[in-house]
Structures are given as C-alpha cells and as structure tokens.
Design brief:
By secondary structure, this protein is an all-alpha fold. Helices cover 66% and strands 0% of the residues. Helix 6 packs antiparallel against helix 7 (93-110). The longest helix is centred in the last third of the chain and has 22 residues, at 150-171. The chain starts with 11 loop residues before the first helix and ends in a 7-residue tail after the last helix.
C-alpha cells in the first residue's frame, strides 16, 4: 500500500494526506486507519503515540493532530511553508501544486477558516503582517501568530505607533536656540 514514513526524506503533512488517499482507495474502514498508520511510523514515533491516551492510538484524527504537533506543523508553520515553498528540480508542476495546495489547506484548517469572509480576513491580515517592520513584529512576538483579525491587528499596530511617536517626541532633545 504505502511505504513506511521516513522522517528524513518525507514531509509528515504530505505523508498523512497520501496515507488517507491510499486508505480510501483500498476501502480500509476509517476505524482501522489509526492502527494501519501506527504500523507505518518509525519506532520512536510509535512510542510517542503509545505514551499518549489509548484513545489517540485508536482515533486517526487525534493521531494525525498529535503527529502534526510533534513535527511542529502549526498553522503558522503551514503559512510559512505555503508562502516560501519552491518547486524541486525533480518535481513536476503538478507535484508542486499539490504540495502548495496541501500547505494552504494546513494553514487555513489549523485556524478553523471555513468561510470566504474568514479567508478574506486572513489574507488581508497576512498582507499587513508582511509589511510590518521587524522591530514591531518582535514587540508582539508572543501573540503574533494569533493576530488573525484585521481590526485587532491594526488596533495593536496603531497603538504601538502612537506610543512610539509619543515616546520619541518626549525623549528627543529640544532644538538649540541661537
């Protein structure tokens, strides 16, 4: 059916999608997906799953979520992969489109984006974030990935600018009089 997962050469998110497609094609009942996947994982990863609650090892969706967290594939990481992914010289354009599509899906599903308005908001926020100076981004580093609403983001950025402008105004030395 599908080869074992190779941590060095495989992307876990793409591997999981491939696994799902193969399981569907082979008509494997969904209740057996988790056990089939577990048998394809490297021993260290299987141990990680085994240390979790028994429910995770029997529930494909929970196992998938655990694996994505283990490989630190958060919505923000998927956004970065989506934005910066390059076509491999050996891959076809169809392969590249498949990879980009899956990174995009990981990004929006990680943020529970399900409507056009939510998607529109996310894309506008992403464009604003791309233009924010690094020192401002650094100021909000702990909450940066959660700032996904235009109104909240712009309010914080305007507040930062207002405080910065006041501080710069008060700390600047007055011009010398002749």
């Amino acid at each position: 059916m599908i080869p074992k997962f190779d941590q060095v050469n495989n992307d876990i998110s793409l591997y999981l999608i491939l696994f799902e497609r193969q399981a569907q094609t082979a008509d494997v009942p969904k209740e057996f997906w988790a056990s089939h996947l577990l048998s394809l994982l490297p021993y260290e990863i299987a141990q990680l799953v085994a240390r979790e609650d028994v429910g995770i090892s029997r529930d494909f969706v929970k196992m998938k979520s655990l694996l994505l967290k283990t490989y630190k594939l958060t919505a923000e990481k998927f956004r970065q992969l989506f934005s910066k992914h390059c076509k491999s010289p050996t891959a076809t354009w169809k392969d590249f489109a498949y990879e980009v599509r899956n990174y995009f899906h990981g990004w929006i599903s990680g943020l529970d984006i399900s409507t056009f308005d939510q998607l529109k908001e996310l894309i506008i926020v992403d464009q604003i974030k791309c233009r924010v100076p690094p020192e401002v981004r650094e100021h909000y580093i702990d909450e940066w990935s959660q700032l996904n609403k235009v109104e909240i983001l712009t309010s914080k950025l305007d507040d930062y600018d207002a405080i910065r402008t006041k501080r710069d105004f008060h700390t600047s030395t007055p011009p010398k009089r002749s």
